[in-house]
Automatic annotation (TrEMBL):
Keyword Transcription recorded: no
One Pfam family linked to the record: Pro-kuma_activ
Protein name (database record): Tripeptidyl-peptidase 1
PROSITE patterns in alphabetical order: SEDOLISIN
EC number annotated for this UniProt entry: 3.4.14.9
UniProt KW Lipid metabolism keyword: no
Protein function: Lysosomal serine protease with tripeptidyl-peptidase I activity. May act as a non-specific lysosomal peptidase which generates tripeptides from the breakdown products produced by lysosomal proteinases. Requires substrates with an unsubstituted N-terminus.
MF terms in GO: metal ion binding; serine-type endopeptidase activity; tripeptidyl-peptidase activity
Example GO BP: proteolysis
Cofactor: Ca(2+)
Localization of this protein: Lysosome
Any one of the GO CC terms: lysosome
C-alpha cells in the first residue's frame, strides 16, 4: 500500500485533514480531447468507489495454489459467492463509506455481489463536496463527450483507510487499436500476392485440424471491448463465409453484454470477434461492450465491476486495452490486480494484448529516455500476449518478431516467482541488452506468450480489409486456443486452465514454437537507436515463450 499523503485543505471556512488516494495519477488531459467548459452543478456524474477489501493476502495465496499444477489445490476454483465471503469489505468499512455518501445526500448507489464496489449517481455539486479539490469540466473528442476533474481530489482522512480509489474522476478512455498498415503505410508493392493471415492460415500454422473445434456443454469465451467500437453481426457472418471453410464454427455471437452502439463497425472490434471464433471454433462467444449505464465513465472499470456481479461468466477473456503504466496511480493498479486475482481464483483466464509500441519510450528529462511499460499488460496476474510475423510473408513459414510487439519490465510490480528463472536466464544469456537505465530488471516482465499479429484479413462494414496488424489480433487467437484446451479438459472432467502463467512457465517452452529472431521498437535516440529488446532462445521480453503448437500444447495441459 502507498503511504497516504495528508494535505491541509480549506473546506468550508475551516481546515480539515484529508488524504489523496491517487496522488500519483496523471491528471493531464490526453491528446485529442478538448476542454469544453465547466459542468453545471446540477448536472449528474457517476462515480465508482473501490472499497478496501479484506484478506487480499489470502486471496493471493489461494490464486497461487489453484494455479500451480504441482499443488494439491490445483484447479480447486472458488465460486463468486466464495470469493465474496473472502474479500467482502468489513462492516466498519461499508458503514463508513455508506454513511459518508449519505451525509452528502448521495443515495442512488448500486453495489456488486462482492460488496467491494459502489457505483453512485450524483450531482456535480455533491461530487465536488464529497471529494474536496475536485472540479469537474466537460471534454470532447469527436462525437464523444465526458466529464472529468483535472484537479486532484481528496477524501476525509478517516475515510482513506476504507477506500482504494474513486473511479470516474481522472482517467480518460485508453487507446489500443488495430490498424491496417495499408492505411498507415500506403499501398505495399506486393499487395495482391502477399499471403495475408486468415483463419485457415492460422489453423494451418498452429496445427489445428478440422476436428479441433469445441463441443463441451457450457464452454464459452469472451472478448471485452472498451473503445466506443462495435462489431457488426453481418460482418462476422460474411467473414466466416469468406474465410472459415473446412472446419465447424459459429457465425453468431452467443451473448452481448452491454450496449452496442449504432453506426459503423470498428476494425478492432471486428478483429477480436472474428478471430477468437476462428481458433476457438464452435465455442459459444460473448462480447462485453461498453457495459454500464454511463458509457463515458471508465468502461474498463465498469467491466471489472460486472465480473464481480455475475456468477456465471466465460472461462477465457481476451482484452485489447492498455494504458501507460506511469500515467496510472499505483493504488488503482494494485486494486485492479486484486480484481484479476478474484477472476483467477474462479478459474477465469485473462489475456491482455502486450501493446503495439514495442518497448515504448518515455522522456524522463531532456536527452534522457526510458522504456515505457503498459498496464494491464504489466500485471503479474494476467497472461500477456505479444506478436509475430511470418519469416517469409508469402508462405506459412516459421515466425519472427513483429517489431511492434509490446514487451518489457514493470516499474511498479515486482517480478513474480513463476517467471524469475526464465527472465534471469534471458538477462544472463543476452549480450546486447539495452542500457540498464532504460528498464527495471526487478519488475514483472512481459509478454508471456505470442501469436501472429501481422497482415490479417478482417471484414468490417461489409468490406474485407487486408494488412490489419497489432497484438489485438494475436490475443484472441491465443484465447481461442486456450478455450479449445478448456473444452477438451471439460470433456475429461477436468477443471478449466484458469490463470495460466504458473503452469506456462513450468513448461519451459515445451509445446511452443520458440521465436528467436528480430527486435521490437524502442526509443528513437542515439543510445538505443530505435530498438528495444531482441528475441532469443527460450523466454524473451518480445515474444514471451513463443507461439502455440496446438496439439503439443493440448497434450502438455491435459492433466
Ligand atoms: C449488480 O447486480 C444486481 C442484481 O442484478 C443489480 O441490482 C445491481 O445494480 C448490479 N450492480 C451494478 C453496479 O450494476
Ligand atoms: C506442427 O507444425 C510444425 C510446423 O508447421 C511441424 O513441424 C509439426 O510436425 C506439426 N505437427 C505437430 C504434431 O507438431
Ligand atoms: C459444436 O458444438 C455443439 C455444442 O455447442 C456440439 O453439440 C457439436 O457436436 C459441436 N460440433 C462439432 C463438429 O464438434
Ligand atoms: C452455462 O449454462 C447455464 C445454464 O444453461 C447458463 O445460464 C449460463 O449462462 C452458462 N454459462 C456460460 C458462461 O456460458
Ligand atoms: C523498479 O521496480 C520495482 C518493483 O519491482 C519498484 O519498486 C521500483 O521503484 C522500480 N524502480 C524504478 C526506478 O522505477
Amino acid at each position: 500500500m502507498l503511504p497516504l499523503v495528508p494535505v491541509f485543505v480549506l473546506f468550508c471556512c475551516r481546515p480539515v485533514w484529508s488524504a489523496h488516494l491517487e496522488h500519483d495519477q496523471d491528471t493531464s488531459i490526453p491528446e485529442g480531447w478538448t476542454h469544453a467548459g465547466r459542468v453545471a452543478s446540477s448536472d449528474r456524474v457517476e462515480l465508482t468507489f473501490a472499497l478496501r477489501q479484506q484478506n487480499v493476502d489470502k486471496l493471493r495465496g489461494l490464486l497461487e495454489s489453484v494455479s500451480d499444477p504441482d499443488s494439491v489445490q490445483y484447479g480447486k476454483f472458488l465460486t463468486l459467492e466464495e470469493v465474496s465471503s473472502l474479500v467482502r469489505p468489513s462492516e466498519l468499512t461499508q458503514k463508513a463509506v455508506w454513511g459518508w455518501l449519505r451525509s452528502h445526500g448521495v443515495t442512488d448507489c448500486r453495489t456488486v455481489l462482492t460488496d467491494d464496489f459502489l457505483q453512485c449517481d450524483m450531482t456535480i455539486q455533491a461530487a465536488e463536496s464529497l471529494l474536496p479539490g475536485s472540479r469537474f469540466f466537460r471534454y470532447v473528442r469527436g462525437q464523444h463527450a465526458l466529464v472529468r476533474s483535472p484537479a486532484p481530489y481528496s477524501v476525509p482522512d478517516d475515510l482513506a483507510q476504507h477506500l482504494d480509489f474513486v473511479g470516474g474522476v481522472h482517467r480518460f478512455p485508453a487507446k489500443l487499436e488495430a490498424v491496417s498498415r495499408a492505411w498507415t503505410n500506403g499501398q505495399r508493392p506486393e499487395a495482391g500476392f502477399h499471403l495475408g493471415v486468415t483463419p485457415i492460415i492460422l489453423r494451418s500454422r498452429y496445427n489445428l485440424t478440422a476436428s479441433d473445434v469445441g463441443c463441451a456443454e457450457n464452454n464459452s469465451q469472451a472478448v471485452a471491448q472498451f473503445l466506443e467500437q462495435f462489431y457488426h453481426p453481418a460482418d462476422l457472418a460474411e467473414f466466416m463465409a469468406l474465410f472459415a471453410g473446412g472446419f465447424k464454427h459459429m457465425s453468431q455471437v452467443a451473448r452481448v453484454v452491454g450496449t452496442q452502439g449504432g453506426g459503423k463497425a470498428g476494425l478492432e472490434a471486428s478483429l477480436d470477434v472474428e478471430y477468437i471464433m476462428s481458433t476457438g471454433a464452435n465455442i459459444s462467444t460473448w462480447v462485453f461492450t461498453n457495459p454500464g449505464r454511463h458509457e463515458s465513465q471508465e468502461p474498463f472499470l465498469q467491466w471489472m465491476l460486472l465480473l464481480s456481479n455475475m456468477s456465471s461468466v466465460p472461462w477465457v477473456h481476451t482484452i485489447s486495452y492498455g494504458d501507460d503504466e506511469d500515467s496510472l496511480a499505483a493504488s488503482y493498479m494494485t486494486r485492479i490486480n486484486t480484481e484479476f486475482m478474484k477472476a483467477g481464483v474462479r478459474g477465469i483466464s485473462m489475456l491482455f494484448a502486450s501493446g503495439d509500441s514495442g518497448a515504448g519510450c518515455r522522456q524522463l528529462s531532456k536527452g534522457s529516455n526510458a522504456f515505457r511499460p503498459s498496464f494491464p499488460a504489466s500485471s503479474p496476474y494476467v497472461t500477456t500476449v505479444g506478436g509475430t510475423s511470418f519469416k517469409n510473408p508469402f508462405k506459412v513459414t516459421y515466425e519472427v518478431t513483429d517489431y511492434i510487439s509490446g514487451g518489457g519490465f514493470s516499474n511498479v510490480f515486482p517480478m513474480p516467482d513463476y517467471q524469475v528463472n526464465a527472465v534471469n536466464a534471458y538477462l544472463k544469456a543476452v549480450q546486447a541488452l539495452p542500457p540498464k537505465t532504460y528498464f527495471n530488471t526487478s519488475g514483472r516482465a512481459y509478454p508471456d506468450i505470442a501469436a501472429l499479429s501481422d497482415n490479417y484479413w478482417v471484414v468490417s462494414n461489409r468490406v474485407p480489409i487486408p494488412w490489419v496488424s497489432g497484438t489485438s489480433a494475436s490475443t484472441p487467437v491465443v484465447g481461442g486456443m486456450l478455450s479449445l484446451i478448456n473444452d477438451k479438459r471439460f470433456l475429461k472432467g477436468l477443471p478449466a486452465l484458469g490463470f495460466l502463467n504458473p503452469r506456462l512457465y513450468k513448461l519451459k517452452g515445451q509445446a511452443l514454437f520458440d521465436v528467436t529472431e528480430g527486435c521490437h521498437l524502442g526509443c528513437l535516440d542515439e543510445q538505443v537507436e530505435g530498438k528495444g529488446f531482441c528475441a532469443a532462445p527460450a523466454w524473451d521480453p518480445v515474444t514471451g515463450w513463443g507461439t502455440p503448437n496446438y496439439p503439443s500444447l493440448l497434450a502438455a495441459l491435459m492433466d
